[in-house]
Structures are given as structure tokens and as C-alpha cells.
Amino acid sequence: MDRNDALLADWRMRALALETEVGKAVVGQHRSLRLINTAVFARGHVLLQGDVGVGKTTLLRAFAHVLGGAFARVEGTIDLMPNDLIYHTYISEAGRPAVDPGPLIGHGDDLAIFFFNEINRARPQVHALLLRAMAERSVSAFNRQFSFPHLLVFADRNRVEREETFEISAAARDRFMMEITIDTPADDETRRALAFDPRFHDTERLVGALAPAMVPHRELNAVAELIQRSVQVSDALQAYALALWRASAAPHEFGIELPDLDSAQLMLAGASPRGMSLLLRAARVAAWLEQRLYVTPEDVQSVFAEAIGHRLCFQPVHELQRHLIAPRLLAAIAARVPAP
Asked: What residue numbers bound the domain in which 46 lies?
């Protein structure tokens, strides 16, 4: 075993330990834990959606706690403005106006996790600023540039409340590596624990009981790049990914039909080039977590819906039903496009 193989094996153990640790606080969400862990080691931003009270915030806070590094958080509200992320003003004890750095720049280049709670309650102007931070990992303020080389953005939104909310634009959604849906656990044993076990009633204590800063977060970028260089994608697998890409834009060309929908008139645009790049980046990490240094069709399929679904653009007449149409379409694509 050469040095890189040993390093990858050691970090795989750390990654799986992270996942296990978060699982102590978040039960019944095994697939979601694996997907977020995949995004972390692929260095991709994560958007969660789900109903109210299903544990989205707890899940993201738990991951931020065990990953370590500087952590900042903002609550999405209808009156939040872009400048609120950069600085806040107040009257000091001396009775004079004062300005302090806001949550986005307050930790400088040590910022590792920026958690945006209820992102769809914030205005599009706020989304635009966040978009730059996600894309470039930097912002300009106070006549200087602030860089965040280790930044991951975690955000959540609920899919129930529509009042005083703003839909996230396609450009902003495309910056997230994955959009993961969190549903209420279906089995009675997990539901009973969540409802009646006092351990799950105090989120602060629940998250605080987890082991903090389990990995040196400043090394994650280098490890992620090593994973990408080491995990191979065959020519046949590349052809398979390209076919999935074409099917996302023109499902009718692959014979994909959905009941009550004309697949030839369904799509405005399929997955973006960025989206396909991030899909393969996530698939390499999925393979690595399964102790392989080559990607299989199953690795691509394991992240396909979460990496591509939020990037699809439907014709306007169908856009309001995207949350119903996208899962059906992606399942049909995965079933219809032949895997090598």
C-alpha cells in the first residue's frame, strides 16, 4: 500500500466515524447522513428541504459540530438584507454608533460552515450575495476581499409554508451540490423514540453531547482532491453519465414517458455542465466510502436524484409541480438509460 492509499484508508475511517457520530443524534436518516457526508468530502454545498419539525436543523448542526472549524449561522427572515451578513451596526456603551463584522466575515478564512436556516424566507438580494460566497468562496467588504477557502454552506427550507417566502432561483440552486429531502421516519420504533425519549427533546444538549471537531478541517480540501485524483471513472461509465445528462434534457429521445405528461414538451433545460461535474465528483466520493477506487453505475445512481433533481428546469406550466414531477422523471431516467 503506497502513501496515498494509506492516507485514503485512514481518512475513510475518519469519514465513517463522523457519520456514526452524527447518527447518535439523528435517527432514522441513514441515507441522508451518507449523502451529506458524501457532499462534505466532495466539498459541495448542501440544501435540505422537508416538512416542519423533521430534524433538518438538528442534522445540519450536528454535522457542523463534529466537523469543527469556525461556524456561523443566520436565520432567514423577510426583512433580512445582504448587509446583515456582512456587518451589523449598533449603539455602543459609550452611546456612539459602532460597526462589527457580520456572521459571514466575522471568522475570516477559518470559516468552515455557514448555516443558513430557512433560506427561502430571505429576499433574492440575500440569495445573490450568498451565491457569490458559494461560487467564489469570497466577498468584498470594507474595501478588502474576504476569502473562505474552507467554506461549506448548509441551508434548509421547509416545503410546507409558502407565506412570506421567496423561491430560490435556478442559478442559486445550481450552486448546491445536492438537495436532500428529509422525511419523517416511517418505522414506529424510531417515531416512538423521537416522540417519547427525552434525549431528543433538547437539541442543544443532544448536539453538544457529540464529539466536537473530529477531523482537522483545514485538511479536507487536500483530501477531497486526493479522492478525486485517485478514484477512476472508466470510459463506459463516462458514456453512461453522458447518456443520463442527455436524458435529463430530452427524456422523450430515450422513450421516457410519464402518465398525463408529454415528455417532449416537459423540459426547458436539463442538468447543467456544473451539475454533471458535481454528480461525478460526488460519485467518486460514494465509491471511496464503499472502499473502492473506481466508480460503478451504482455509485452514480446513489447520488443521481439528489445531485440533479434541483437543477432541472421545467416548462413554466409544469414548474409549480416540480416537487412532484422531478422524482418521477429521475426514477424513469435511471430505469430507462442502460447502465454498463
From this structure: 3-217
